[in-house]
Amino acid sequence: MNNYRIEKDTMGEIQVPNDKYWGAQTQRSIENFPIGNETMPKEIIEGFAYLKKACSAVNNNLKRLDDTKYTAISSACQEVIEGKLKDNFPLVVWQTGSGTQSNMNINEVVAARATEILGSNFRKEKLIHPNDDVNKGQSSNDTYPTAMRIAFVLEIQKQLIPAIKKLKKTFEEKSNEFKDIVKIGRTHLQDATPLTLGQELSAYVDMLNKALSQIDDSMKYITELAIGGTAVGTGLNSHPDFSPMVCEVLNKQTKTKYKFKSHPNKFHALTSHDGEVVLSGVLNALASNLMKIANDIRWLSSGPRCGIGELTIPANEPGSSIMPGKVNPTQSEAMTMVAVQVMGNHTTVSVSASQGNFELNVFKPVIAYNILQSIKLLSDTMIAFNDNCAIGIQPNKKNIDKYLNDSLMLVTALNPYIGYENAALIAKTAHKNGTTLKEETLKLGLLSEEEFEKYVRPEEMIYPKI
């Protein structure tokens, strides 16, 4: 029994591990929701700590919390932000849909640690109350959606944007390096007209640029915070200036590029997560583009002798337990798996966001978990793909030139001179007879050899001209 202490809440008494800062409500959640292994993301806990610290500062400024309590709460919150109390947040994602128990988890831990900072034993007395002090002027219904949006903004700025920029820079360099390498294009997985390898890779650069722009667009919704709405959006027990003041403090604390602001309609803020759907949609769009990039790279590097083989990629590890010397496009495979996971996460977020009944959406933890997982996975896979694949991409000029010169689609250059139908006749006849475009053009008497050589020049087919 020495390993436990007795904590009380409105439901009665319960045993709590003696070495933990949490209290009765956290312990009840542990016992009532033994579901899965997915604990509340540390990013949410950090978001909560920033929020509780800001709220204590504002309550102190409004003369609703004395200096002694404010200082202790602020210090405890800072310790949470720094990860010093990380073993005190054990709750799973699969709990109450408002995130109430996670809000109380942070309230209880901060209250206990603040009590300790003030020189008292939190196991025997509470100088700081989790509800009356740490949660003053707040509700789980406005703090959880606020904490998760703080987490999204911080992780996007810290992880996702740098990862996108890193991969974009690599493709910019490769696009420039390969700008003069003319190759055959492909549409419908069939031969098409030429382009340069640099032009092909430039599409990836623009995809990543668009991702950065779309993230910026989504942030105007994610930075609108629900704090101040309390239970149903009316702001009961809060102060009229509480929400904008908290946002101002958060901006000073977090120093983010994207500035937090008070949501203009707290009833919307509590019951709807359309902003999260927009953000998840941006992540989904990025995943779709990364899927395309990864598939292109593994198709173009397929072989090495019996595939397309226009590119070579780094050989990072043995590719088979039975076939000696085999090397596989593993970074592409990892990135495509991440992409489908993110697409699945977007479906979860979309359905969850549709479930706002009356004044509250109660799917908040699963929304937060999926978006944060998507941000983390996308960030990690882009860094890994960049460092272990993209920077090592090189052209196989021998194969590129062979496919270019063998392609029947070079005949497209003749359309302005002999017409589409005659050009199609040349291509079909050459394909049937296994001959070249030039041979069949001369046999059909449609052009002279000099004219053919003048018109069919792949390097002149990669841009529009008069």
Strand content: 5-15%
Biggest sheet layout:
2 strands, antiparallel
Average of the residue pLDDT scores: 97
Total domain count? 3
**Estimated helix fraction:** 55-70%
The rounded distance between the terminal residues' Cα atoms is 89 Å
The Rg value, from CA coordinates, equals: 30 Å
Structural class: mainly alpha
What's the shape?
Answer: elongated
| CATH H-tier superfamily of the largest domain | Fumarase/aspartase (Central domain)
CATH fold field value of the largest domain: Fumarase C, Chain A, domain 2
How many helical elements? 17
Number of strands: 10
Low-pLDDT windows of residues: none
Major beta sheet, strand line-up: 1-2
What is the chain-wise order of helices and strands?
Answer: EEHHHHHHEEHEHEHHEHEEHEHHHHH
Using the coordinates above, name the CATH class of the largest domain: Mainly Alpha
3D architecture notes:
The N and C termini lie far apart (89 Å). The strands form 5 sheets. The protein has a two-stranded antiparallel ribbon with strand order 1-2. Strands 3-4 form a two-stranded antiparallel ribbon. The radius of gyration is 30 Å and the shape is elongated. It has helices at residues 24-32, 42-61, 67-81, 100-117, 130-134, 140-177, 197-222, 242-254, 266-271, 274-300, 330-353, 364-388, 397-406, 415-418, 420-433, 437-444, 449-455, and strands spanning 4-9, 12-17, 182-187, 190-196, 224-225, 261-262, 311-312, 356-357, 360-361, 394-395. It folds into 3 domains: 4-136, Fumarase/aspartase (N-terminal domain) (Fumarase C, Chain B, domain 1); 144-169 and 197-297 and 314-385, Fumarase C, Chain A, domain 2 (Up-down Bundle), CATH 1.20.200; 407-460, Ribonucleotide Reductase Protein R1, domain 1. The chain is built from 17 helices and 10 strands.
